[in-house]
């Protein structure tokens, strides 16, 4: 072997690892966009990953997930989506965030979108129909028409003397706020309730101001509309409600775990799992146009007995029997 041949051989050997690395497939990227905060979402992220795993994808090994936490700042969406679409991520997922779903649909007609929204996705313009989405978006509709009424009914059963109800909405999440208010307004008379006032908050300071108003106006109960920003402020809202001694009904378990009185709504962990399943299915080749919008089927009712005692509320045994979770 000549010296020249030996050097050529060494050069080829040195290049092998580089060639091997170059042949490694690039992992697809899923963009995860949430109106919530990371700290308030660990359980839901775990459920999303579980859904991906069910389709054969493991984060960090066969797929990259980029988490984007808006924390209620929906004004960040245009710049964020411009960046994600410019990088041509494989899938956009918007679990539990109606503003993100609407913005994503408006921003791209090619990148697949997996949403989960409280309202009818047809009326929101996300799909043509539930059975035949007809575009680049599909996902889960997690809010049935009767959920607001059911939550009010349970609140009425817990606080039967409650007549005047205040409703807290986030005006920055306009479509969800309007929908929630309309549902509560329609359901309230069925339980002998009436809407005393509608209060609006989209910042921490505005939440404080809302409860200053509530302490002056003294409604019998508070209905907190489902919203990602409110979820990130679960501890603040529950603490202020306790200080004002106002029984409040929420959409999610985490609000009750933070000290809220009761919640009734979709099992969000299962909904996030479904989003993960759909995202993984798209990575495997499924097309949103062929994937019907799923309807949420799991709902949960949670009561905080310690909060009930602090409000001098005696929880009937029938409600305890109905509860999916009781916090002592």
The average pLDDT score comes to 90
Write down how many β-strands occur, each being a DSSP E stretch of 2 or more residues. Answer: 13
Structural class: alpha/beta
Q: Helix amount, in percent? A: 40-55%
What is the second-level CATH architecture of the largest domain? Answer: 3-Layer(aba) Sandwich
In the residues, how many domains can be counted?
2
Largest sheet: 7 strands, mixed
Strand order of the largest sheet: 7-6-8-9-10-12-13
User: What is the CATH top level name of the largest domain?
Assistant: Alpha Beta
Number of helices: 13
Inertia-based shape? elongated
Provide the β-strand percentage band: 15-25%
For the record, what is the CATH homologous superfamily label of the largest domain?
Response regulator
Structure description:
By secondary structure, the chain is of the alpha/beta class. The protein has 2 domains: about 30-140 and about 265-295, 3-Layer(aba) Sandwich (Rossmann fold); about 145-265 and about 300-325, 3-Layer(aba) Sandwich (Rossmann fold). Helices cover about 45% and strands about 20% of the residues. The chain is built from 13 helices and 13 strands. The chain has helices at about 5-25, 40-55, 75-85, 100-105, 145-160, 175-185, 205-215, 230, 235-245, 255, 270-285, 305-310, 315-320, and strands at about 30-35, 65-70, 90-95, 115, 135-140, 165-170, 195-200, 220-225, 250, 260-265, 295, 300-305, 325. Strands 7-6-8-9-10-12-13 form a 7-stranded mixed sheet, sandwiched between helices. The chain has a 6-stranded parallel sheet with strand order 2-1-3-4-5-11, with helices on both faces. The longest helix is centred in the N-terminal third of the chain and has 21 residues, at about 5-25. It is elongated, with a radius of gyration of 24 Å.
